[in-house]
């Protein structure tokens, strides 16, 4: 994919959130997207047609992260109210609320089979919740982190999480081991490459770092944007050719994956770009911002 | 139920329920207010305050009429009895008019002061009246400083009249005249909008406010007109003018100005001053996320602050980003602030007479080098900047040559002080004439110069093969020597550009000389000191560089001192590699784009080591920082590996096989040692206390939870299992009177004669402790931990225990391989031994303690639980199971040991890590 194909044209603006939008995520096939924000709602959109489909209200505080299962039937979300919500998509009801985090929950993800929700909290812990049983107790608590856990990613066999203590920790369930990669800088967000070999970590020194997962080697650093004080997402394009990151000045940056040069950057929002999510197949991207809008970008 | 009621005997009169009377009263009031007005007069009924009908017709009423309306008692009218005795004198009553009046008559009498009820007191006159009366009454009661009635003006009604309240509710404000309903409506709407804007957030409000002002100028005029009725606001007198003096009488413009300085005084007149932050809806004037608030019952705390809006605009945008819209706003702000200083009615003068005198900062001379020079080394500098003395043939006398060479080297190394010193010392010595300009002085000069050149060069880490071969002659010890006197070498860096005759050392630097300013010439090799903070490491680094560039075989302890561990050495070597590469790159970069500034910066950065207060900005350009950056890069990311045990259910949910399935529970990190401590007697604890002071508070907590889980976790194969032992053991000791147990005990008794002796001494003690034991037992039943082995007194000597204790495990676990057992570290044996020892002592103490005590205990147990027999059975069962588990535990401990040995390679790191984790945990 050449730089011309990067999604830089605004296709739609999804407006509806009152106040900052903190997260925006495509679903598995990229036909829909979910967003959550400071207005305590989760909204389901069709980003391609710019339609607001549904609003999920139950959170008592801001929604910080949301994830949807691959079969689009369930949503998990988390936020400032220290709980992880497990929703039914069609009815819009909360099926379960997982309580246990001592503090705000920063990130949440389903596993491959949508049977476990893993949440990362400000209380320096990762917690795994069982969706199959009726228990609302976490089935496992990982508390080896030294500071707030900002982001979590799951593979089929691993739990990967980035923390403000500067580490990206990989918990390999199959091997029963924990790999800790210390980056020396607070990790804001982590994102897996689509081939699963690399992990992209957004650090609070305004640098994105690409790590090789098998060796823990630092492959590349991406600079140019501003990321110093907010929880902001980063991601890779669906062909792993470019790295995308938002900036605190409302810009969105595209880097070449290999030579780390800024391929493109443009002003997407008037304020902090909190979240970026890339379409799993097409050249399409959604960005969310503190300015209250979610924007859809296409090539 | 019925029988219950039969049992009751009612004594006394039942208290009349208050609710009944109250409800009746309410009803009457409601009726009085409702009915009286709506019904025709002839249909209205008069009722008393209790709601009972009072007047009856001639043929209605009956008993009730007679009873209630005439005498008010069952007995009919009875005269008051007059009693007076010697003790109890009837008091002579002061008769009064009121004594002869009925209630309604009294009310009528009161009614001669007619007033409006509060409900209809539109203008507040009645309230004022009442207040006045009240004050009069008070006045009568207590004399005040000012005699006579209070003046009317001072007495104000306490409540707002209903009319005012109504109007306030409709949107009227004090000070406004009552106008047409249209304008008040408009006003209310405006108020509402303002509130909404305040709600929406300060920024927007500002913008919209500005819009409003421009759009609403005529409306404002109306407003001005509306404010016709004056409002007397009693402002505290804060100035020092006389009473009633208005300093702004002739110049009202100034009043505005003054008012704007006093934030509190914007009450009247200036309604348009927008109350920005502390408006109704902005919570506590903090930065709350716009658009929505939090619930009424929730506390507003840090989480609700709008982090995204807080001051970000000023931090980052202004500095870094050129955003047109932002800038426009900035401009506007600036212009407004410019206007701000000017009084209304004045304008800023275009040229002012008053010229602010400005003092220019002193001009920095061009040759100023921004670093500190130490006076002692100044001389060296001067000397070294001299034109090199011409080459002189060495003196014929070989001894003299050697001497001169030596002295020159020493002087170069130690400074001119050494020269002076030796000159003084050897004044009479003809051999040292060369110092005073005698024989061989020229040669000495030349040698000294050379030595100094060499001395300056020798810290150069020989980046290129070209670099002076002479420098390679340096040995490690000279280098160490040099490093000891860093300041000396450092100051040599600003060598004046000299034209050295033949010294090929400086040859390549002359190339750069042509590009740079003379004053700031720097030896680039000086930069290559990435490990300035650690001289030893720096030394090794130089050694490494030397070897690297010389090539060939490496010396034995290459890349690190022999003291270092293999891992540390390897790490250091990597670091050195990175640093060397960085230096090379940095140098290369420098040569390719030699800008004078860069080198200046570099020199400043070098000077920083000595000045320490220098500009840090320079460091960024500096090669050193580059090297450091690369080093940090090479240090991060740092990978560490730990064991981590996923919960079986998690594995199941992830559709994976549990890697620890069937394996013994892993030793929890950093807990293994602590757990053993739990059951250690005091003396061992004391011994290990120094090591584990940090973790000791945690032990109790952990132990408690473990013990608390005893009941339901017995079935589980868990880490805690080993801790379960104690209570189970206790039960066993107390309740099981199995034959096998007895046998075991007897066996032990035979085996442990010395222990028994000691124990015999302690029998009395244990008897005394029996009560305590009971107590602790009770606590355990209540799932609480007894105090930590208080009966393990220092009376039990260590020596007597140790041999016996070591026998026991073998006795108990015949299956345990003794060899393997011996291989277990002392720590583990100790812990396990102690556990067992404790158990044995417990058992023994129980044996020793009399039967009645046992039975007493059992009876207590009976009291606690209903079924004794089943309990006993369970205990027995448990004890046998417990034995198995103990074996298992032993295996675990072995396993643990192996593991620890395998881990020992990283032990240093790991322990550090563990302790860190431990600390963290403790924090939690």
Itemize the secondary structure elements and their pairings.
The complex is a heterodimer of chains A (299) and B (924).
Chain A: E1 9-15, E2 21-26, E3 33-37, E4 41-46, E5 51-57, E6 63-68, E7 74-79, E8 83-88, E9 94-99, E10 105-110, E11 116-121, E12 126-130, E13 138-142, E14 149-154, E15 158-163, E16 167-172, E17 177-182, E18 187-192, E19 198-203, E20 207-212, E21 218-223, E22 234-236, E23 242-246, E24 251-256, E25 262-267, E26 273-278, E27 284-289, E28 293-298
Antiparallel strand pairs in A: 1-28, 2-3, 3-4, 4-5, 6-7, 7-8, 8-9, 10-11, 11-12, 12-13, 14-15, 15-16, 16-17, 18-19, 19-20, 20-21, 22-23, 23-24, 24-25, 26-27, 27-28
Chain B: H1 2-7, H2 18-38, H3 63-71, H4 103-110, H5 125-141, H6 162-169, H7 181-200, H8 202-215, H9 217-226, H10 252-261, H11 312-320, H12 324-340, H13 375-384, H14 398-414, H15 416-425, H16 441-457, H17 476-484, H18 486-490, H19 507-513, H20 535-550, H21 566-592, H22 596-611, H23 617-621, H24 623-635, E1 638-643, H25 648-653, H26 672-678, H27 682-692, H28 696-708, H29 710-713, H30 721-735, H31 739-751, H32 753-781, H33 798-812, H34 818-823, H35 826-848, H36 851-864, H37 868-903, H38 907-923
Helix pairs in contact in B: 7-8, 14-15, 14-16, 17-20, 21-24, 26-28, 30-35, 30-37, 32-35, 33-35
Family (chain A): Belongs to the WD repeat MORG1 family.
Keywords (chain A): Cytoplasm, Repeat, WD repeat
WD repeats (chain A): 14-55, 56-97, 98-130, 266-299
Describe this structure in words.
Chain B: Residues 267-279, 799-814, 832-855, 899-917 have a biased composition (Basic and acidic residues). Chain B: Residues 783-798 have a biased composition (Low complexity). Chain B: One of its GO terms (cellular component) is nucleus. Chain B: Residues 815-831 have a biased composition (Polar residues). The complex is a heterodimer of chains A (299) and B (924). With 299 residues, chain A is an all-beta fold. Helices cover 0% and strands 55% of the residues of chain A. Chain A has one domain: YVTN repeat-like/Quinoprotein amine dehydrogenase (Methylamine Dehydrogenase, Chain H, 7 Propeller), CATH 2.130.10.10. In chain A, 58% of the residues are buried. Among the domains of chain B are: 18-71, no CATH class; 118-164, no CATH class; 368-457, Arc Repressor Mutant, subunit A (Orthogonal Bundle); 459-639, no CATH class; 673-923, no CATH class. Chain B has 924 residues and is mainly alpha-helical. Chain B is elongated and about 165 Å long. Chain B is built from 38 helices and 1 strand. Chains A and B meet through β13, β16 and β17 of A and α11, α24, β1, α25 and α38 of B.
